[in-house]
Amino acid sequence: MKSLKLCVLAAFLVPTGPVFANDEGLYQDVFDPNSSFVRILAPGQAFASVDGTTVRDIADGVSDYVNVMPGAIDITMSSTSVTVDVAPSMHYTIVLLDGQEPEILTDEITLDPGKSDVTVYNLSGTDDVELFVPAADQSAISDIDAMSGSSVALRAPLTLDFQMRANGETLASIEQVALERRAGVSIILTEDGGAYAATAMPNVYLK
């Protein structure tokens, strides 16, 4: 039975590879191949600025990815600002939470034409969180510490349920997450007063 479960999981999982600045077949033609992508993760905020570009609709989680050139860029919100050194051909998510220092996370985005990138951000205070796939009865990602993120590439198209677990306990569940080819999904785990919640949303690129 154990070997069968591992085979099922292998059908879903694909090792993450190099990061490329392209998506939906457009970015090789539209964006400079040395450019990178930066977005904001700031639940509850209405808008922010990434290298002078205003991003909105981030109240529920993450903003669109903004295309930037390598070098130092400014990230600003109404309550804080931070300067980020951007390397070529990378994806970054800047976590900005009230009362906390900004966290600069590097996203392992593959944008493979046959796979979907799933990135989990653990904004709770719990360490060693795992992304569990009930259909495979296995974890897709494990050991996600508080205020960090981790990614995995899954075969697509698929529609899967996910559970966020820690120490064998299910903290939050997400149902019917659509995984599309050459695209990505972000899952955000939050905690408020000991109550956990998880949301999933597609990765979007500002055009």
Number of strands: 17
**SSE arrangement, N to C:** HEHEEEEEEEEEEEEEEEE
User: The biggest beta sheet, please?
Assistant: 5 strands, mixed
Sheet with most strands: strand arrangement: 1-13-10-16-17
Structural class: mainly beta
Give the distance, in angstroms, between the N- and C-terminal Cα atoms: 47 Å
Percent strand = over 45%
Poorly predicted residue ranges: 1-8, 14-29
**What fraction, in percent, of the residue positions are helical?**
under 10%
Q: Number of helix segments?
A: 2
Mean pLDDT across residues: 86
Shape: globular
Give the C-alpha Rg: 17 Å
Overview of this structure, please?
With 207 residues, the protein is mainly beta. Helix content is 7%, strand content 52%. The protein contains two helices and 17 strands. It is globular and about 45 Å long. The relative contact order is 0.19. Mean pLDDT is 86; it is low at 1-8 and 14-29.
Set down the secondary structure blueprint:
Elements: H1 2-12, E1 13-14, H2 27-30, E2 36-41, E3 47-50, E4 53-56, E5 66-68, E6 71-76, E7 81-86, E8 91-95, E9 103-107, E10 115-122, E11 129-133, E12 138-144, E13 148-155, E14 158-166, E15 169-179, E16 183-192, E17 195-202
Parallel strand pairs: 2-8, 10-16
Antiparallel strand pairs: 1-13, 2-5, 3-4, 3-6, 6-7, 8-9, 10-13, 11-12, 11-14, 14-15, 16-17
